[in-house]
Design a protein that fits this description.
The protein is 28% helix and 15% strand. It is of the alpha/beta class and 506 residues long. The protein has a ten-stranded mixed sheet. A four-stranded antiparallel sheet has the order 11-12-13-14, covered by helices on one side. Helix 7 runs parallel beside helix 9.
Protein backbone atom coordinates (compact mmCIF):
# COMPACT_ATOMS: atom_id res chain seq x y z
CA UNK A 1 0.00 0.00 0.00
CA UNK A 2 1.35 3.42 -0.94
CA UNK A 3 2.34 5.69 1.94
CA UNK A 4 0.04 8.46 0.72
CA UNK A 5 -2.89 6.06 0.88
CA UNK A 6 -2.04 5.16 4.49
CA UNK A 7 -2.14 8.84 5.45
CA UNK A 8 -5.47 9.30 3.70
CA UNK A 9 -7.15 6.40 5.42
CA UNK A 10 -5.72 7.04 8.87
CA UNK A 11 -8.52 8.25 11.14
CA UNK A 12 -7.81 11.69 12.49
CA UNK A 13 -4.67 12.21 10.42
CA UNK A 14 -6.19 15.15 8.59
CA UNK A 15 -4.85 14.14 5.19
CA UNK A 16 -6.68 14.86 1.95
CA UNK A 17 -8.95 11.90 1.17
CA UNK A 18 -8.48 10.27 -2.24
CA UNK A 19 -11.14 10.88 -4.89
CA UNK A 20 -13.89 8.42 -5.61
CA UNK A 21 -13.70 6.99 -9.14
CA UNK A 22 -16.62 6.35 -11.52
CA UNK A 23 -16.01 4.99 -15.02
CA UNK A 24 -19.05 4.88 -17.31
CA UNK A 25 -18.67 2.92 -20.54
CA UNK A 26 -21.16 3.01 -23.40
CA UNK A 27 -21.32 0.18 -25.92
CA UNK A 28 -21.05 0.90 -29.68
CA UNK A 29 -21.78 4.62 -29.21
CA UNK A 30 -20.78 6.72 -32.21
CA UNK A 31 -18.49 9.74 -31.88
CA UNK A 32 -21.24 12.28 -32.58
CA UNK A 33 -24.22 10.68 -30.81
CA UNK A 34 -24.30 12.80 -27.64
CA UNK A 35 -25.06 16.50 -27.55
CA UNK A 36 -21.63 17.57 -26.30
CA UNK A 37 -20.12 16.02 -29.46
CA UNK A 38 -22.63 17.39 -31.96
CA UNK A 39 -25.57 15.02 -31.59
CA UNK A 40 -29.26 15.90 -31.51
CA UNK A 41 -30.13 13.14 -29.02
CA UNK A 42 -31.22 14.53 -25.66
CA UNK A 43 -28.29 13.88 -23.31
CA UNK A 44 -28.50 16.62 -20.66
CA UNK A 45 -26.63 14.61 -18.01
CA UNK A 46 -23.59 13.97 -20.18
CA UNK A 47 -23.72 17.47 -21.65
CA UNK A 48 -23.73 18.89 -18.13
CA UNK A 49 -20.71 16.82 -17.15
CA UNK A 50 -18.92 18.11 -20.26
CA UNK A 51 -19.73 21.75 -19.59
CA UNK A 52 -18.52 21.44 -16.00
CA UNK A 53 -15.61 19.20 -16.87
CA UNK A 54 -13.29 18.33 -19.73
CA UNK A 55 -13.85 16.99 -23.22
CA UNK A 56 -11.18 15.25 -25.27
CA UNK A 57 -11.40 16.10 -28.95
CA UNK A 58 -10.18 12.63 -29.80
CA UNK A 59 -9.61 9.77 -27.37
CA UNK A 60 -8.72 6.26 -28.48
CA UNK A 61 -10.17 2.87 -27.65
CA UNK A 62 -9.40 -0.66 -28.84
CA UNK A 63 -11.89 -0.73 -31.71
CA UNK A 64 -14.18 -3.43 -30.32
CA UNK A 65 -15.88 -4.56 -27.11
CA UNK A 66 -13.51 -7.13 -25.59
CA UNK A 67 -10.15 -5.52 -26.44
CA UNK A 68 -11.24 -2.13 -25.12
CA UNK A 69 -12.62 -3.56 -21.87
CA UNK A 70 -9.46 -5.59 -21.27
CA UNK A 71 -7.29 -2.51 -21.81
CA UNK A 72 -9.51 -0.28 -19.69
CA UNK A 73 -9.33 -2.69 -16.75
CA UNK A 74 -5.59 -3.35 -16.91
CA UNK A 75 -3.87 -0.43 -18.63
CA UNK A 76 -2.24 -2.89 -21.03
CA UNK A 77 -2.58 -3.63 -24.72
CA UNK A 78 -5.27 -6.31 -25.13
CA UNK A 79 -2.88 -8.94 -26.50
CA UNK A 80 -0.74 -8.57 -23.39
CA UNK A 81 -3.66 -9.63 -21.18
CA UNK A 82 -5.18 -12.42 -23.28
CA UNK A 83 -7.77 -10.46 -25.25
CA UNK A 84 -6.27 -10.01 -28.71
CA UNK A 85 -9.60 -11.00 -30.25
CA UNK A 86 -12.91 -11.78 -28.52
CA UNK A 87 -13.91 -13.60 -25.34
CA UNK A 88 -13.65 -17.40 -25.44
CA UNK A 89 -16.83 -19.42 -25.00
CA UNK A 90 -17.89 -21.04 -21.75
CA UNK A 91 -17.11 -24.58 -22.88
CA UNK A 92 -13.88 -23.82 -24.74
CA UNK A 93 -10.36 -24.92 -23.83
CA UNK A 94 -8.37 -21.95 -25.09
CA UNK A 95 -4.60 -22.01 -25.50
CA UNK A 96 -3.08 -19.60 -22.96
CA UNK A 97 -1.66 -16.49 -24.54
CA UNK A 98 -2.63 -13.36 -26.44
CA UNK A 99 -5.87 -14.89 -27.76
CA UNK A 100 -7.04 -16.94 -24.79
CA UNK A 101 -10.21 -14.87 -24.49
CA UNK A 102 -10.16 -13.96 -20.79
CA UNK A 103 -8.16 -11.54 -18.66
CA UNK A 104 -4.72 -12.75 -17.69
CA UNK A 105 -4.33 -13.31 -13.96
CA UNK A 106 -0.86 -11.78 -14.19
CA UNK A 107 -2.19 -8.30 -14.94
CA UNK A 108 -3.85 -6.48 -12.01
CA UNK A 109 -7.13 -4.72 -12.74
CA UNK A 110 -8.05 -1.21 -11.65
CA UNK A 111 -10.40 -2.80 -9.12
CA UNK A 112 -7.61 -4.95 -7.66
CA UNK A 113 -5.28 -1.96 -7.49
CA UNK A 114 -7.83 0.23 -5.74
CA UNK A 115 -9.20 -2.43 -3.39
CA UNK A 116 -5.67 -3.18 -2.16
CA UNK A 117 -5.49 0.49 -1.18
CA UNK A 118 -8.71 0.74 0.81
CA UNK A 119 -11.35 1.33 -1.87
CA UNK A 120 -14.73 -0.39 -2.01
CA UNK A 121 -15.15 -1.61 -5.59
CA UNK A 122 -18.43 -2.04 -7.47
CA UNK A 123 -19.39 -3.00 -10.99
CA UNK A 124 -22.76 -2.95 -12.73
CA UNK A 125 -23.08 -3.89 -16.38
CA UNK A 126 -21.41 -5.79 -19.18
CA UNK A 127 -18.24 -7.74 -18.27
CA UNK A 128 -17.29 -9.52 -21.55
CA UNK A 129 -13.70 -10.40 -20.59
CA UNK A 130 -14.22 -13.89 -19.17
CA UNK A 131 -17.18 -16.26 -19.45
CA UNK A 132 -16.18 -18.91 -16.90
CA UNK A 133 -17.01 -18.28 -13.22
CA UNK A 134 -13.32 -18.26 -12.27
CA UNK A 135 -12.92 -15.22 -14.55
CA UNK A 136 -15.95 -13.25 -13.30
CA UNK A 137 -15.66 -9.75 -11.78
CA UNK A 138 -15.56 -10.80 -8.11
CA UNK A 139 -12.43 -12.81 -8.92
CA UNK A 140 -10.85 -9.67 -10.41
CA UNK A 141 -11.15 -7.20 -7.58
CA UNK A 142 -14.79 -6.19 -7.38
CA UNK A 143 -16.57 -6.37 -4.01
CA UNK A 144 -20.01 -6.37 -5.64
CA UNK A 145 -21.15 -7.16 -9.16
CA UNK A 146 -24.39 -7.21 -11.09
CA UNK A 147 -24.76 -7.55 -14.81
CA UNK A 148 -24.27 -9.32 -18.08
CA UNK A 149 -21.25 -11.61 -18.11
CA UNK A 150 -21.57 -12.16 -21.86
CA UNK A 151 -21.80 -9.96 -24.91
CA UNK A 152 -24.84 -8.47 -26.63
CA UNK A 153 -28.26 -9.57 -25.40
CA UNK A 154 -31.91 -8.65 -25.54
CA UNK A 155 -32.70 -5.75 -23.23
CA UNK A 156 -35.86 -7.51 -22.02
CA UNK A 157 -34.78 -11.11 -21.44
CA UNK A 158 -32.06 -13.69 -21.91
CA UNK A 159 -32.72 -15.40 -25.25
CA UNK A 160 -31.69 -19.03 -24.86
CA UNK A 161 -31.39 -19.93 -28.54
CA UNK A 162 -28.73 -17.37 -29.46
CA UNK A 163 -25.57 -18.64 -31.17
CA UNK A 164 -23.75 -18.29 -27.85
CA UNK A 165 -25.33 -18.70 -24.42
CA UNK A 166 -25.79 -15.42 -22.56
CA UNK A 167 -25.43 -15.22 -18.78
CA UNK A 168 -26.12 -12.68 -16.06
CA UNK A 169 -24.90 -12.74 -12.48
CA UNK A 170 -25.38 -11.09 -9.11
CA UNK A 171 -22.02 -11.27 -7.34
CA UNK A 172 -20.97 -14.92 -7.90
CA UNK A 173 -24.46 -16.32 -8.53
CA UNK A 174 -26.15 -16.77 -11.91
CA UNK A 175 -29.14 -14.44 -12.19
CA UNK A 176 -32.13 -14.32 -14.53
CA UNK A 177 -34.33 -11.32 -15.38
CA UNK A 178 -37.96 -11.33 -14.25
CA UNK A 179 -40.54 -12.28 -16.85
CA UNK A 180 -41.99 -8.75 -16.95
CA UNK A 181 -40.88 -5.21 -16.20
CA UNK A 182 -37.19 -5.69 -16.96
CA UNK A 183 -35.11 -3.33 -19.13
CA UNK A 184 -31.36 -3.91 -19.15
CA UNK A 185 -30.22 -0.28 -19.12
CA UNK A 186 -32.42 0.59 -16.15
CA UNK A 187 -31.38 -2.56 -14.31
CA UNK A 188 -27.71 -1.58 -14.55
CA UNK A 189 -28.48 1.92 -13.28
CA UNK A 190 -30.71 0.64 -10.47
CA UNK A 191 -28.11 -1.79 -9.18
CA UNK A 192 -25.34 0.81 -9.35
CA UNK A 193 -27.53 3.09 -7.25
CA UNK A 194 -28.07 0.25 -4.78
CA UNK A 195 -24.31 -0.17 -4.41
CA UNK A 196 -23.88 3.56 -3.79
CA UNK A 197 -26.76 3.65 -1.30
CA UNK A 198 -25.23 0.76 0.65
CA UNK A 199 -21.71 2.17 0.55
CA UNK A 200 -20.19 2.92 4.00
CA UNK A 201 -19.90 6.65 4.53
CA UNK A 202 -16.35 7.93 4.47
CA UNK A 203 -14.76 5.08 2.52
CA UNK A 204 -13.53 5.82 -1.02
CA UNK A 205 -15.20 3.84 -3.79
CA UNK A 206 -14.73 2.79 -7.39
CA UNK A 207 -17.81 2.23 -9.56
CA UNK A 208 -17.50 0.75 -13.05
CA UNK A 209 -20.83 1.17 -14.85
CA UNK A 210 -20.69 -0.61 -18.21
CA UNK A 211 -23.90 -0.13 -20.16
CA UNK A 212 -24.85 -2.28 -23.14
CA UNK A 213 -26.62 0.70 -24.74
CA UNK A 214 -26.79 1.43 -27.57
CA UNK A 215 -25.44 -1.91 -28.86
CA UNK A 216 -27.89 -3.92 -30.96
CA UNK A 217 -30.54 -5.29 -30.77
CA UNK A 218 -32.49 -2.06 -30.99
CA UNK A 219 -34.68 -2.16 -27.88
CA UNK A 220 -36.15 0.90 -26.19
CA UNK A 221 -39.11 1.88 -24.05
CA UNK A 222 -42.15 3.41 -25.79
CA UNK A 223 -42.01 6.71 -23.90
CA UNK A 224 -38.41 7.24 -25.01
CA UNK A 225 -39.06 6.27 -28.62
CA UNK A 226 -41.95 8.75 -28.76
CA UNK A 227 -39.54 11.68 -28.35
CA UNK A 228 -37.76 10.73 -31.59
CA UNK A 229 -40.62 9.29 -33.64
CA UNK A 230 -40.45 11.93 -36.38
CA UNK A 231 -36.88 13.13 -35.87
CA UNK A 232 -35.09 11.04 -38.49
CA UNK A 233 -37.43 11.22 -41.45
CA UNK A 234 -34.95 13.46 -43.29
CA UNK A 235 -32.50 10.58 -43.38
CA UNK A 236 -28.87 9.78 -42.78
CA UNK A 237 -27.33 12.26 -45.23
CA UNK A 238 -29.04 15.25 -43.64
CA UNK A 239 -28.23 13.99 -40.15
CA UNK A 240 -24.52 13.60 -40.88
CA UNK A 241 -24.29 17.17 -42.22
CA UNK A 242 -26.32 18.56 -39.30
CA UNK A 243 -24.01 16.94 -36.79
CA UNK A 244 -20.92 18.13 -38.64
CA UNK A 245 -22.15 21.73 -38.56
CA UNK A 246 -22.86 21.50 -34.83
CA UNK A 247 -19.38 20.11 -34.19
CA UNK A 248 -17.93 23.14 -35.96
CA UNK A 249 -20.20 25.49 -33.97
CA UNK A 250 -19.17 23.84 -30.69
CA UNK A 251 -15.50 24.34 -31.49
CA UNK A 252 -15.02 20.59 -31.21
CA UNK A 253 -13.47 20.51 -34.69
CA UNK A 254 -12.35 23.11 -37.21
CA UNK A 255 -12.35 23.50 -40.97
CA UNK A 256 -9.35 21.20 -41.39
CA UNK A 257 -11.68 18.33 -40.45
CA UNK A 258 -13.13 17.45 -43.83
CA UNK A 259 -16.36 15.48 -43.94
CA UNK A 260 -15.96 12.24 -45.92
CA UNK A 261 -18.60 11.49 -48.53
CA UNK A 262 -21.14 8.78 -47.91
CA UNK A 263 -19.66 5.44 -49.06
CA UNK A 264 -20.67 4.80 -52.66
CA UNK A 265 -22.28 1.44 -51.89
CA UNK A 266 -24.77 3.05 -49.50
CA UNK A 267 -27.95 4.54 -50.99
CA UNK A 268 -28.78 8.21 -50.79
CA UNK A 269 -31.77 8.72 -48.50
CA UNK A 270 -33.96 9.89 -51.37
CA UNK A 271 -33.26 6.58 -53.12
CA UNK A 272 -34.09 4.43 -50.10
CA UNK A 273 -37.44 2.64 -50.66
CA UNK A 274 -38.06 1.75 -47.00
CA UNK A 275 -37.60 5.12 -45.35
CA UNK A 276 -40.21 4.63 -42.62
CA UNK A 277 -38.58 1.50 -41.22
CA UNK A 278 -35.09 2.99 -41.27
CA UNK A 279 -36.27 6.21 -39.61
CA UNK A 280 -37.91 4.08 -36.91
CA UNK A 281 -34.67 2.20 -36.29
CA UNK A 282 -32.74 5.40 -35.73
CA UNK A 283 -35.48 6.68 -33.43
CA UNK A 284 -35.13 3.57 -31.29
CA UNK A 285 -31.34 3.91 -31.28
CA UNK A 286 -31.67 7.52 -30.09
CA UNK A 287 -34.11 6.41 -27.39
CA UNK A 288 -31.54 3.90 -26.13
CA UNK A 289 -28.91 6.63 -25.78
CA UNK A 290 -31.49 8.89 -24.14
CA UNK A 291 -32.37 6.25 -21.52
CA UNK A 292 -28.70 5.65 -20.77
CA UNK A 293 -28.25 9.39 -20.21
CA UNK A 294 -31.25 9.42 -17.88
CA UNK A 295 -29.54 6.72 -15.84
CA UNK A 296 -26.29 8.69 -15.76
CA UNK A 297 -28.28 11.66 -14.49
CA UNK A 298 -29.60 9.51 -11.66
CA UNK A 299 -26.05 8.44 -10.77
CA UNK A 300 -24.91 12.07 -10.72
CA UNK A 301 -27.90 12.96 -8.55
CA UNK A 302 -27.01 10.20 -6.09
CA UNK A 303 -23.40 11.39 -5.87
CA UNK A 304 -24.67 14.90 -5.20
CA UNK A 305 -27.06 13.64 -2.51
CA UNK A 306 -24.17 11.78 -0.86
CA UNK A 307 -22.16 15.01 -0.81
CA UNK A 308 -19.32 13.49 -2.85
CA UNK A 309 -19.89 14.76 -6.40
CA UNK A 310 -17.14 17.37 -6.28
CA UNK A 311 -14.73 14.79 -4.91
CA UNK A 312 -15.51 12.12 -7.51
CA UNK A 313 -13.66 11.67 -10.80
CA UNK A 314 -16.23 10.61 -13.40
CA UNK A 315 -15.01 9.40 -16.79
CA UNK A 316 -17.36 8.62 -19.68
CA UNK A 317 -16.38 6.98 -22.98
CA UNK A 318 -17.40 4.36 -25.56
CA UNK A 319 -15.76 1.01 -26.23
CA UNK A 320 -15.62 1.61 -30.01
CA UNK A 321 -17.26 3.60 -32.77
CA UNK A 322 -20.70 3.10 -34.24
CA UNK A 323 -21.48 -0.41 -35.45
CA UNK A 324 -22.27 -1.18 -39.10
CA UNK A 325 -23.25 -4.80 -38.50
CA UNK A 326 -26.48 -6.48 -39.54
CA UNK A 327 -27.95 -9.12 -37.24
CA UNK A 328 -30.42 -10.55 -39.74
CA UNK A 329 -28.40 -13.77 -39.97
CA UNK A 330 -29.13 -14.57 -36.33
CA UNK A 331 -32.78 -15.24 -37.24
CA UNK A 332 -34.01 -13.89 -33.90
CA UNK A 333 -36.32 -11.16 -35.24
CA UNK A 334 -40.08 -11.57 -35.02
CA UNK A 335 -41.38 -9.67 -38.04
CA UNK A 336 -44.70 -9.04 -36.28
CA UNK A 337 -42.99 -7.11 -33.45
CA UNK A 338 -42.49 -3.36 -33.70
CA UNK A 339 -38.89 -2.19 -33.85
CA UNK A 340 -37.79 -1.60 -30.29
CA UNK A 341 -40.30 -3.96 -28.70
CA UNK A 342 -39.68 -7.33 -27.13
CA UNK A 343 -39.43 -9.91 -29.89
CA UNK A 344 -37.79 -7.55 -32.37
CA UNK A 345 -34.10 -8.08 -33.07
CA UNK A 346 -32.57 -5.64 -35.56
CA UNK A 347 -29.65 -3.21 -35.88
CA UNK A 348 -29.41 0.26 -37.38
CA UNK A 349 -26.65 -0.87 -39.78
CA UNK A 350 -24.08 0.94 -41.86
CA UNK A 351 -25.84 4.03 -43.20
CA UNK A 352 -26.85 5.19 -39.72
CA UNK A 353 -23.48 4.11 -38.26
CA UNK A 354 -21.88 6.41 -40.82
CA UNK A 355 -23.95 9.26 -39.39
CA UNK A 356 -23.15 8.22 -35.80
CA UNK A 357 -19.43 8.42 -36.49
CA UNK A 358 -19.50 11.94 -37.97
CA UNK A 359 -17.00 13.26 -39.03
CA UNK A 360 -15.00 10.02 -39.31
CA UNK A 361 -15.27 7.09 -41.68
CA UNK A 362 -15.54 3.36 -41.10
CA UNK A 363 -16.78 1.68 -37.95
CA UNK A 364 -16.37 -0.69 -35.03
CA UNK A 365 -13.73 -3.38 -35.76
CA UNK A 366 -11.79 -1.11 -38.11
CA UNK A 367 -8.69 0.73 -36.93
CA UNK A 368 -9.60 3.85 -38.89
CA UNK A 369 -10.77 6.76 -36.73
CA UNK A 370 -14.42 5.76 -37.05
CA UNK A 371 -13.60 2.55 -35.22
CA UNK A 372 -11.19 3.73 -32.54
CA UNK A 373 -12.03 7.38 -31.76
CA UNK A 374 -14.40 7.90 -28.84
CA UNK A 375 -15.81 10.87 -26.97
CA UNK A 376 -14.24 11.16 -23.55
CA UNK A 377 -15.72 13.35 -20.83
CA UNK A 378 -13.98 13.79 -17.48
CA UNK A 379 -15.76 15.51 -14.58
CA UNK A 380 -14.02 16.23 -11.28
CA UNK A 381 -14.70 19.64 -9.71
CA UNK A 382 -11.93 19.18 -7.13
CA UNK A 383 -9.38 18.21 -9.73
CA UNK A 384 -10.11 19.60 -13.21
CA UNK A 385 -8.76 23.04 -13.97
CA UNK A 386 -10.62 25.49 -16.23
CA UNK A 387 -13.78 23.38 -16.61
CA UNK A 388 -15.59 23.48 -19.92
CA UNK A 389 -12.42 22.98 -21.93
CA UNK A 390 -12.03 20.89 -25.06
CA UNK A 391 -8.52 19.49 -25.11
CA UNK A 392 -6.56 18.39 -28.17
CA UNK A 393 -4.21 16.34 -25.98
CA UNK A 394 -4.05 12.73 -27.06
CA UNK A 395 -5.32 9.93 -24.87
CA UNK A 396 -5.97 6.20 -24.97
CA UNK A 397 -8.11 3.92 -22.84
CA UNK A 398 -4.88 2.34 -21.52
CA UNK A 399 -4.17 5.70 -19.85
CA UNK A 400 -7.09 5.47 -17.43
CA UNK A 401 -5.34 3.13 -14.99
CA UNK A 402 -2.24 5.34 -14.87
CA UNK A 403 -4.38 8.45 -14.45
CA UNK A 404 -6.35 6.92 -11.59
CA UNK A 405 -3.16 5.77 -9.85
CA UNK A 406 -1.75 9.28 -10.21
CA UNK A 407 -4.94 10.91 -8.91
CA UNK A 408 -5.11 8.61 -5.87
CA UNK A 409 -1.40 8.44 -5.03
CA UNK A 410 -1.32 4.68 -5.48
CA UNK A 411 1.71 2.86 -6.83
CA UNK A 412 0.98 1.93 -10.44
CA UNK A 413 1.36 -1.68 -11.60
CA UNK A 414 2.97 -2.35 -14.97
CA UNK A 415 1.14 -0.40 -17.66
CA UNK A 416 1.35 0.56 -21.31
CA UNK A 417 -0.38 3.88 -20.59
CA UNK A 418 0.56 7.20 -19.08
CA UNK A 419 -1.17 9.55 -16.70
CA UNK A 420 -3.45 12.23 -18.08
CA UNK A 421 -3.60 14.06 -14.77
CA UNK A 422 -1.61 17.03 -16.14
CA UNK A 423 -4.28 17.45 -18.83
CA UNK A 424 -7.01 17.34 -16.20
CA UNK A 425 -5.47 19.76 -13.76
CA UNK A 426 -3.38 22.32 -15.65
CA UNK A 427 -4.28 22.08 -19.34
CA UNK A 428 -0.77 20.75 -19.94
CA UNK A 429 -0.03 18.18 -22.60
CA UNK A 430 2.00 15.17 -21.45
CA UNK A 431 5.64 15.63 -22.44
CA UNK A 432 6.96 13.86 -25.49
CA UNK A 433 5.26 12.15 -28.38
CA UNK A 434 4.53 8.45 -28.18
CA UNK A 435 3.65 5.67 -30.54
CA UNK A 436 0.36 3.78 -30.27
CA UNK A 437 -0.48 0.42 -31.85
CA UNK A 438 -3.65 -1.48 -32.72
CA UNK A 439 -4.58 -4.88 -34.13
CA UNK A 440 -7.90 -6.67 -34.25
CA UNK A 441 -8.92 -9.56 -36.56
CA UNK A 442 -6.41 -8.40 -39.15
CA UNK A 443 -7.16 -4.67 -39.05
CA UNK A 444 -4.03 -2.81 -37.94
CA UNK A 445 -2.77 0.68 -37.16
CA UNK A 446 0.14 2.60 -35.74
CA UNK A 447 0.07 6.27 -34.75
CA UNK A 448 3.40 8.04 -34.36
CA UNK A 449 2.91 11.67 -33.41
CA UNK A 450 0.55 13.09 -36.03
CA UNK A 451 1.31 10.33 -38.55
CA UNK A 452 -0.97 7.32 -38.77
CA UNK A 453 -0.52 4.16 -40.80
CA UNK A 454 -3.63 1.99 -41.00
CA UNK A 455 -4.41 -1.34 -42.67
CA UNK A 456 -7.85 -2.40 -43.85
CA UNK A 457 -7.75 -6.17 -44.21
CA UNK A 458 -10.36 -6.05 -46.97
CA UNK A 459 -8.05 -3.96 -49.17
CA UNK A 460 -4.87 -5.65 -47.98
CA UNK A 461 -2.85 -2.42 -48.16
CA UNK A 462 -1.40 0.08 -45.73
CA UNK A 463 -2.70 3.67 -45.87
CA UNK A 464 -0.77 6.67 -44.54
CA UNK A 465 -2.38 9.81 -43.14
CA UNK A 466 -1.09 13.10 -41.72
CA UNK A 467 -3.70 13.68 -39.01
CA UNK A 468 -2.48 17.20 -38.32
CA UNK A 469 -3.64 18.27 -41.79
CA UNK A 470 -6.16 15.50 -42.50
CA UNK A 471 -7.87 14.50 -39.23
CA UNK A 472 -10.56 12.43 -40.94
CA UNK A 473 -8.29 10.30 -43.15
CA UNK A 474 -9.29 11.54 -46.58
CA UNK A 475 -5.93 11.61 -48.39
CA UNK A 476 -3.77 8.49 -48.42
CA UNK A 477 -0.10 9.54 -48.64
CA UNK A 478 1.43 6.06 -48.73
CA UNK A 479 2.45 6.33 -52.40
CA UNK A 480 3.79 9.85 -51.97
CA UNK A 481 5.81 8.98 -48.85
CA UNK A 482 6.67 5.30 -49.32
CA UNK A 483 9.76 5.33 -47.10
CA UNK A 484 7.79 6.69 -44.14
CA UNK A 485 5.04 4.14 -44.74
CA UNK A 486 7.58 1.29 -44.95
CA UNK A 487 9.37 2.39 -41.79
CA UNK A 488 6.13 2.67 -39.81
CA UNK A 489 4.94 -0.70 -41.12
CA UNK A 490 8.19 -2.26 -39.94
CA UNK A 491 7.77 -0.62 -36.53
CA UNK A 492 4.23 -1.97 -36.28
CA UNK A 493 5.51 -5.42 -37.20
CA UNK A 494 8.17 -5.26 -34.50
CA UNK A 495 5.49 -4.43 -31.92
CA UNK A 496 3.22 -7.17 -33.26
CA UNK A 497 5.98 -9.74 -32.96
CA UNK A 498 6.82 -8.63 -29.43
CA UNK A 499 3.25 -8.94 -28.17
CA UNK A 500 2.20 -12.09 -29.98
CA UNK A 501 -0.10 -10.80 -32.70
CA UNK A 502 -1.40 -13.66 -34.81
CA UNK A 503 -1.59 -12.55 -38.42
CA UNK A 504 -5.05 -12.99 -39.92
CA UNK A 505 -5.39 -13.83 -43.63
CA UNK A 506 -6.88 -11.06 -45.74
Amino acid sequence: MACAAIVWYCAGCGGTPPPNIVIILADDLGYSDIGAYGGEIQTPALDGLALDGLRFQRFYNGGRCCPTRATLLTGRYPHAVGMGAMVSSLNSLPQPGPYQGYLSQEAPTIAEMLRANGYRTYMSGKWHVGEKPEHWPRRRGFDRYFGLISGASSYYEIIRDQPRIRAMALDDTPWSPPAEGFYMTDAFTDRALDFLNEHPEGDPFFLYLAYTAPHWPLHALPEDIARYRDRYTDGWDVLRHERYRRQLDLGLIDSTWGLPSRPQHLPAWEDEPNKENWAERMAVYAAMVDRMDQGIGRIVGQLRAMGVLDHTLIVFLSDNGGCAESVAGRNLHDSTAAVGARGSYVAYQEAWANASNTPFRLYKQWMHEGGIATPLIAHWPDGIGAPGRITTAGGHVMDLMATIADATGITLPQTDGRSLLPVFTTSAVPAGERTLYWEHIGHRAIREGHWKLVYDRRRGEWELYDLSADPTELTDLSRHLPLRAERMAAEWQSWADSIGVRMTPN
